[in-house]
Amino acid sequence: MSTDRPHSVSVAGVIVDDHGRALLIKRRDNGKWEPPGGVLEREETIPEALQREVLEETGIKIALPATLTGVYKNMTGLIVSLVFRCQAADGTPTTGDETRALRWATREEVTELADEAYAIRVTDALDAASPPAIRAHDGVKLI
What's the pTM? Predict the structure, then answer.
């Protein structure tokens, strides 16, 4: 039996507006720009976790189903992230306990604001990659 710690699974939602911009959050804990998301709770399905995390961090309820656009593995943090392109169903973007700021960002702004490992998630979602992208990173840079 392996003594390695297990991987965790997270979800992130890239909400795209009518102008093709993505909603980014600036996290309170590390000040980084990312798509909203977080770790699945034990009792949640993937769509439930996606809706919960996006709502908690943005104040927006997303429409389901959402489109899977990428699977990303943080080789350092041992986190597998499932990223979805989403549409807003209800609500107004607002900050919360985990969110310092929100911003609608163009593709170019995303690559300037976010670390490469997170920017690629958003640009893959903007491209609506099909089949979904499968990538690895070290928490900041793609590997």
Answer: 0.93
| Residue 29 CB coordination number (10 Å) | 7
Nearest to 38 by CA among 24, 52, 22: 52
CATH assignment of 8-137, among 3.90.79.10, 3.60.140.10, 3.30.390.30, 3.40.50.1970: 3.90.79.10
The predicted structure's pLDDT at residue 128: 87
Mean pLDDT of 105-111: 98
Nearest by Cα to 99 from 37, 14, 16? 37
Residue 117: is it exposed, middle or buried by C-beta count within 10 angstroms (0-12/13-18/19+)?
A: buried
Query: Average of pLDDT values for 32-36?
Result: 97
